[in-house]
Specification:
The chain is built from two helices and no strands. It has about 45 residues and is mainly α. It has one domain.
């Protein structure tokens, strides 16, 4: 699935990123290390 459509960041940039008319800042939709709320689930 990821190969077909891309990861979350790629999908967001393609639909809402700086090269689109909307050009929304990622803000809280960014990963935790960049000030957002998204983080990967822990692997055990």
């Amino acid at each position: 699935m990821i190969e077909a459509v891309g990861n979350y960041g790629e999908i967001y940039d393609r639909n809402f990123g700086p090269s689109t008319p909307i050009a929304l800042d990622r803000g809280q939709n960014n990963v935790v290390s960049r000030g957002g709320l998204h983080y990967g689930m822990p692997f055990r």
